[in-house]
């Protein structure tokens, strides 16, 4: 009987396993994961879970008996320490050896850690896994002043929750605007404003140079000599793809495990999907790495197809969401390289969309509390040759659905 | 606990007990109902928890809100009684509810 092993029991790993079964694979499926928990959803960790609205069991993607029913064997709580791709063996950290016919690497990403002096204090927290979230939830309930380092999605979502819990909140961002890497200035300004209006002290262009930790408080010292005092620090300064296992085995890695549009690595028996991959998507000329539920799921389906010898190329429009207070940001496409923006609606009113164009082509859209516009955008961007009348896009009197 | 019956694409019935306060989607997942995928975990972002409310229950369950209505645009085979099951919260009134699973992928 054939044995397929999946390393990394997160969103992508689970999807590979389920897609193998849906695709009719009747061999052995082994899901090996470093975390002790069955696969769970990460997005609520910085949203409802942190707020205390849902508990950990509700985060599980599937109940425990589902795995047995589908014939997915889970090996949890032990990482894979080594991969011998010549002999097709994975070595677990507890000494177990497992042979495979084909392998999927869905090892995801881990947080980038702060390296400034003082960053090792236990009151400096991160948020990636359930363990982090449990720790942070307890600490948040005891903290009065929270400082967040990094004005990205995680940082801003945590800021919104901490405010909701009644904490004093400061956000320190090195760039001149929040969410700088992913959205246009108008969207950054909008999010900075809604946080400020709710009492968050957003400080831009602030480089953290040290943390002075005393039993009573943590003082963040910035490069310009100013300081922020807090009881708890949450650093959300990005993630690093988990590529060490792949790289040590000799697989090609370059800012991620390199895969083609069929999720194939440089070894014909190994595929990879999710946050850990530097991948090709046929809709884009260059490879990229994306951290999102959409990419984890859609790329995992591609990987499973390849494992089953039914290759289907990856060509999906990316989408993402972020919840902060009563605002839902929904993004689609990739805005990198845009040369023109079209604004629809008024940011002051708390509901608008921004359309990104490159060479007269619609490449991306961000919608805030405009779900219908997001959905239409997802379809438009997927349609090749998308060249849409900008004046009409900007006119909120016209229903988007009727333009196209 | 309210009883909810899911009828999957093969016509098979799954009679489940779902705690009040959970979503209908969570009830389907906990009971392994095939066809309810729920990849966004109930964030009303993916439409892979799409199902049809049985005719007899239309008035009790009610209509989708604006976000759900928009998200349903992405669902396959949308019909008048289409709902995203992650957006239906189980209440005592829903005891006996019948849900027909849609084609999700
Ligand atoms: C707090 C938070 C909020 C988020 N919010 C959103 C959101 O709103 N919308 C959105 O689209 N995305 C969001 N994301 C991103 C999304 O959750 C990720 O993109 C997605 O989980 C990626 O799935 P993955 O399977 O590739 O990686 P992961 O979910 O990271 O899973 C990888 C798994 O592999 C394991 N692993 C790693 N190395 C080994 C090894 N050597 N052996 C065994 N196991 C190993 C890891 O422990 C982990 O369990 C959020 C992420 C976080 C952390
Ligand atoms: S679970 Fe994604 S929309 Fe319901």
Task: Describe the 3D structure.
The complex is a heterodimer of chains A (404) and B (105). By secondary structure, chain A is an alpha/beta fold. Chain A folds into three domains: 177 residues, FAD/NAD(P)-binding domain; 123 residues, FAD/NAD(P)-binding domain; 78 residues, FAD/NAD-linked reductase, C-terminal dimerisation domain (Enolase-like, domain 1, 2-Layer Sandwich), CATH 3.30.390.30. Chain A is built from eleven helices and 25 strands. In chain A, the strands form seven sheets. Chain A has a five-stranded parallel beta sheet. A five-stranded parallel beta sheet of chain A has the order 9-16-10-11-12. A five-stranded antiparallel beta sheet of chain A has the order 21-22-25-24-23. Chain A is globular and about 60 Å long. The N and C termini of chain B lie far apart (30 Å). Chains A and B meet through helix 3, strand 21 and helix 9 of A and helix 1 and helix 3 of B. The structure holds flavin-adenine dinucleotide and FE2/S2 (inorganic) cluster (FES). The site of flavin-adenine dinucleotide (FAD) has 36 residues of chain A, from helix 1, strand 2, helix 8 and strand 21.
């Amino acid at each position: 009987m054939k044995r397929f092993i999946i390393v990394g029991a997160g969103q992508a790993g689970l999807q590979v396993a389920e897609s193998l079964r849906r695709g009719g694979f009747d061999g052995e499926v082994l899901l090996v994961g470093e975390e002790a928990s069955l696969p769970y959803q990460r997005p609520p960790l910085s949203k409802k879970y942190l707020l205390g609205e849902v508990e950990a069991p509700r985060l599980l993607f599937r109940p425990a008996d589902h795995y047995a029913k589908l014939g997915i064997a889970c090996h949890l709580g032990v990482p894979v320490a080594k991969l011998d791709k010549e002999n097709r063996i994975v070595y677990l950290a507890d000494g177990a050896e497992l042979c495979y016919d084909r392998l999927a690497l869905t090892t995801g990403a881990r947080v980038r850690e702060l390296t400034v002096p003082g960053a090792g204090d236990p009151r400096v927290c991160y948020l990636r896994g359930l363990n982090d979230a449990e720790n942070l939830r307890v600490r948040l309930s005891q903290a009065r002043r929270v400082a967040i380092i990094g004005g990205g999605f995680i940082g801003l979502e945590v800021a919104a929750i901490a405010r909701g819990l009644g904490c004093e909140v400061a956000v320190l961002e090195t760039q001149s605007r929040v969410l700088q890497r992913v959205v246009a200035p108008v969207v950054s300004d909008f999010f900075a404003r809604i946080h400020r209006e709710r009492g968050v002290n957003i400080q831009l262009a602030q480089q953290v140079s040290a943390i002075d930790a005393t039993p009573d408080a943590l003082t963040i010292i910035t490069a310009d000599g100013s300081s922020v005092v807090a009881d708890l620090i949450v650093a959300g300064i990005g993630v690093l793809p988990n590529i060490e296992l792949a790289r040590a085995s000799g697989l090609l890695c370059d800012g991620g495990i390199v895969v083609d549009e069929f999720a194939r690595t440089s070894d014909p028996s190994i595929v990879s999907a999710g946050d850990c991959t530097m991948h090709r998507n046929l809709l884009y000329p260059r490879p990229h790495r994306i951290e999102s539920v959409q990419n984890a799921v859609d790329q995992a389906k591609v990987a499973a197809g390849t494992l089953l010898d039914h290759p289907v190329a990856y060509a999906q429009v990316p989408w993402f969401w972020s919840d902060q207070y009563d605002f839902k940001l929904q993004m689609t496409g990739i805005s990198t390289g845009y040369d023109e923006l079209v604004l629809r609606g008024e940011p002051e009113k708390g509901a608008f969309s921004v359309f990104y164009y490159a060479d007269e082509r619609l490449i991306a859209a961000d919608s805030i509390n405009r779900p219908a516009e997001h959905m239409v955008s997802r379809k438009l961007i997927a349609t090749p040759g998308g060249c849409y009348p900008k004046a009409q896009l900007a006119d909120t009197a016209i229903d988007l659905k009727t333009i196209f | 606990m309210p009883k909810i019956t899911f009828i999957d694409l093969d016509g098979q019935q799954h009679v489940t007990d779902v705690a009040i306060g959970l979503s209908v989607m969570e009830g389907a997942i906990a009971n392994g109902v095939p066809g309810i995928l729920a990849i966004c975990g109930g964030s009303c972002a993916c439409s892979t928890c799409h199902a049809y409310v049985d005719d007899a229950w239309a008035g009790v369950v009610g209509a989708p809100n604006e976000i759900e209505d928009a998200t349903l645009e992405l669902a396959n085979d949308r019909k008048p009684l289409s709902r995203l099951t992650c957006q239906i919260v189980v209440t005592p009134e829903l005891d006996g509810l019948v849900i027909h699973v849609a084609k999700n992928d």
